[in-house]
Amino acid sequence: MWQQAHDTIAAVATAFGRGARQIIRISGPEAWQAVRRVVFPESLPSEEPLQPVVVAAYLAWEGLPAQVPCDVFYWPSGRSYTGQAVVEIHTVCCGPLAQEIVARLKLRPARPGEFTLRAFLNGRLDLTQAEAVLGVVEAREVRELQIALQQLAGGIGGPLRALREELLNLVADVEAGLDFAEEDLPFLSWEELETRVATAGRTLEEIRHQFEQRGGSTELPRVVLVGPPNAGKSTLFNALLSAERAIVSPVPGTTRDYLTAVCTYRGVSFELVDTAGVESWSGTKSFSASENMTEAETSTGDADSFIAGKMRAATQQAAETADLQLVCWDVTQYSPQAVRLNRNTHNSRTLLVLTKADLLPTEKSCSWPESAILVSARRNRGLETLKEAIVNRLVSRQETSAGVVAVTAMRCRDALQRAADSLQQAHELIRRRESEDFIATALRSALSSIGEITGEVYSEEILARIFSRFCIGK
């Protein structure tokens, strides 16, 4: 794949279909000469520019009925995305015209992801950043876009490169000590060596935790409605969806199914879950399907009690897997006796929602917590405030646990585990005061595994697997 990384390639960089502009991208040493085959020569500088330039020009070739306006963007070698000379032609959006331009350039058509591959091979990006480009392209919502942009800015590659640099220094010190072994002069004390390896191990565990936050999963965050019966949860569920149980799918496995649907607000998508009402809801205790059933009830097959237990267990299970719980309470039934509930809503995973605000007598005093959100699903009151609060909580939780692009997480999980195992092996060797040769070998193994992630160590198979996922033109 990379054996051809020094020729000149071209591709349409924008999707086909309706749009304002079409972009044709060229990269390689012949980029400037090639663009003169399709652009009116007199509108371009006679010599290849030494600095990035933008030129207003016209498409022109024999047989083209009219001059078509275009903008030509040029970046010299070392100043572009790929690290090579790059030209982009921006013109009117027309699929046949774009295909004709690429054909008349007489260059090799770019393979999927080849522009980003060249950026990696020329040191403009590491592998985690290259995968972040794909993450930006494939992002379906704001949360995924933020993760990809953070990774593109070096959010994952930076710490890994710093760790690799520390391990390189450590290996150098260990191997330097081998040169003085016959003179019985310790170059690095066992205590210092053990401390540095342990510190590297902790740093690697922190990085692994970041990867596991994403875990390669495409699951949306879960927002679960919980609370006592008749608290208005189902009405609120429909109101948040702006439909009567629209795009709702039952989840099997319980006697009384709960309902799920995807809700999107301000570019943030989440899974909304409506659960069965549970008496004396507190959100603090786990329940099994058979809890609170007496032996007599079980033996006589009391169906109502059994169903109630199953409903309670299903609700508790949904609540425990929630990224955010909406604890719903009928505002007309809210009283100081609910103080236990109040205590359970003062954390980042819960929001207290007081429903049926349209039934609240005007003379009733406001005795509920300041953080509570009053809504009336029937009158469409407070719903925007509630949606805003949901999105703010989800985004806040995401920002405090920075993740990685899913494709990076899937590729790197094994390499991170191997690096951790190698550092653990090195630590055990140091603890047993084994040969420094063995310690250096274990450290080099950790270095190799980390290098696979950032791209210092790679093979054609790895690159083909990564860049084949890209579309042409990226």
TrEMBL record:
<feature type="binding site">
    <location>
        <position position="255"/>
    </location>
    <ligand>
        <name>Mg(2+)</name>
    </ligand>
</feature>
<feature type="binding site">
    <location>
        <begin position="274"/>
        <end position="277"/>
    </location>
    <ligand>
        <name>GTP</name>
    </ligand>
</feature>
<feature type="domain" description="GTP-binding protein TrmE N-terminal">
    <location>
        <begin position="8"/>
        <end position="124"/>
    </location>
</feature>
<dbReference type="GO" id="GO:0003924">
    <property type="term" value="F:GTPase activity"/>
</dbReference>
<feature type="domain" description="MnmE helical">
    <location>
        <begin position="127"/>
        <end position="471"/>
    </location>
</feature>
<dbReference type="InterPro" id="IPR027266">
    <property type="entry name" value="TrmE/GcvT-like"/>
</dbReference>
<dbReference type="InterPro" id="IPR006073">
    <property type="entry name" value="GTP-bd"/>
</dbReference>
<feature type="binding site">
    <location>
        <position position="251"/>
    </location>
    <ligand>
        <name>K(+)</name>
    </ligand>
</feature>
<keyword id="KW-0460">Magnesium</keyword>
<keyword id="KW-0479">Metal-binding</keyword>
<feature type="binding site">
    <location>
        <begin position="249"/>
        <end position="255"/>
    </location>
    <ligand>
        <name>GTP</name>
    </ligand>
</feature>
<dbReference type="InterPro" id="IPR005225">
    <property type="entry name" value="Small_GTP-bd"/>
</dbReference>
<feature type="binding site">
    <location>
        <position position="474"/>
    </location>
    <ligand>
        <name>(6S)-5-formyl-5,6,7,8-tetrahydrofolate</name>
    </ligand>
</feature>
<feature type="binding site">
    <location>
        <position position="88"/>
    </location>
    <ligand>
        <name>(6S)-5-formyl-5,6,7,8-tetrahydrofolate</name>
    </ligand>
</feature>
<feature type="domain" description="G">
    <location>
        <begin position="222"/>
        <end position="356"/>
    </location>
</feature>
<dbReference type="InterPro" id="IPR018948">
    <property type="entry name" value="GTP-bd_TrmE_N"/>
</dbReference>
<comment type="subunit">
    <text>Homodimer. Heterotetramer of two MnmE and two MnmG subunits.</text>
</comment>
<dbReference type="InterPro" id="IPR025867">
    <property type="entry name" value="MnmE_helical"/>
</dbReference>
<dbReference type="GO" id="GO:0030488">
    <property type="term" value="P:tRNA methylation"/>
</dbReference>
<keyword id="KW-0963">Cytoplasm</keyword>
<dbReference type="InterPro" id="IPR027417">
    <property type="entry name" value="P-loop_NTPase"/>
</dbReference>
<feature type="binding site">
    <location>
        <position position="249"/>
    </location>
    <ligand>
        <name>K(+)</name>
    </ligand>
</feature>
<feature type="binding site">
    <location>
        <position position="234"/>
    </location>
    <ligand>
        <name>Mg(2+)</name>
    </ligand>
</feature>
<protein>
    <recommendedName>
        <fullName>tRNA modification GTPase MnmE</fullName>
        <ecNumber>3.6.-.-</ecNumber>
    </recommendedName>
</protein>
<keyword id="KW-0378">Hydrolase</keyword>
<keyword id="KW-0630">Potassium</keyword>
<dbReference type="GO" id="GO:0046872">
    <property type="term" value="F:metal ion binding"/>
</dbReference>
<keyword id="KW-0547">Nucleotide-binding</keyword>
<feature type="binding site">
    <location>
        <begin position="230"/>
        <end position="235"/>
    </location>
    <ligand>
        <name>GTP</name>
    </ligand>
</feature>
<feature type="binding site">
    <location>
        <begin position="376"/>
        <end position="378"/>
    </location>
    <ligand>
        <name>GTP</name>
    </ligand>
</feature>
<dbReference type="InterPro" id="IPR027368">
    <property type="entry name" value="MnmE_dom2"/>
</dbReference>
<dbReference type="Pfam" id="PF12631">
    <property type="entry name" value="MnmE_helical"/>
</dbReference>
<dbReference type="GO" id="GO:0005525">
    <property type="term" value="F:GTP binding"/>
</dbReference>
<keyword id="KW-0342">GTP-binding</keyword>
<comment type="similarity">
    <text>Belongs to the TRAFAC class TrmE-Era-EngA-EngB-Septin-like GTPase superfamily. TrmE GTPase family.</text>
</comment>
<comment type="function">
    <text>Exhibits a very high intrinsic GTPase hydrolysis rate. Involved in the addition of a carboxymethylaminomethyl (cmnm) group at the wobble position (U34) of certain tRNAs, forming tRNA-cmnm(5)s(2)U34.</text>
</comment>
<dbReference type="InterPro" id="IPR004520">
    <property type="entry name" value="GTPase_MnmE"/>
</dbReference>
<dbReference type="GO" id="GO:0005829">
    <property type="term" value="C:cytosol"/>
</dbReference>
<keyword id="KW-0819">tRNA processing</keyword>
<feature type="binding site">
    <location>
        <position position="124"/>
    </location>
    <ligand>
        <name>(6S)-5-formyl-5,6,7,8-tetrahydrofolate</name>
    </ligand>
</feature>
<dbReference type="Pfam" id="PF10396">
    <property type="entry name" value="TrmE_N"/>
</dbReference>
<dbReference type="Pfam" id="PF01926">
    <property type="entry name" value="MMR_HSR1"/>
</dbReference>
